[in-house]
Amino acid sequence: VILLITNIVLEKIEENNVINSNIKAQEDTTGLNKGDIAPDITMTNLAGEEVKLSDYRGKKVVLNFWATWCPPCRAEMPHMQKYYDEHKEKQNVEIIGFNMTFSGDSIEKVEQFIASYKLSFPIYTTFDENIIDQYGVLTMPTTYFIDEEGRIHRKVRGPVDEDSLAFYIEDMTK
Fold this sequence. Notes:
Elements: H1 2-29, E1 42-45, E2 50-52, E3 60-66, H2 71-87, E4 93-100, H3 107-117, E5 123-126, H4 130-135, E6 142-146, E7 152-157, H5 162-172
Parallel strand pairs: 3-4, 4-5
Antiparallel strand pairs: 1-2, 1-5, 3-6, 6-7
């Protein structure tokens, strides 16, 4: 009886491992991947001015998809701001916060969020849900690290901190 139960438990564990590895494989291939050219999306700042992602060519770009209602997004913002303050010039990097305004945020909520976190890096908004599809954003936050030529170097699903920002940006120069 113990042997039978042990075998059943081991089979279930193996089933779960297969399911989990299939989920990881799916997550790793959804959206844009290393070497892909980042789609040239149009972003709107809070003053209503439009900017294209290609306007940032020549700089490393950290493109962060976020929402005000997202707890991990809120947790990572102070790290992004501190990294931006300390490394923007010497690393030739631009952090871009791209708020998914259509996901339940409003311009007023975004403005309050920026003020409460004292964010100085560029924040853009969009009501265009197609951008989520173009970038394969499944969860928020999702961050793309884009090199000076506009190629995806890495994507990270989930929050980033100063150490991971430093590592991923340094890795783009290798």
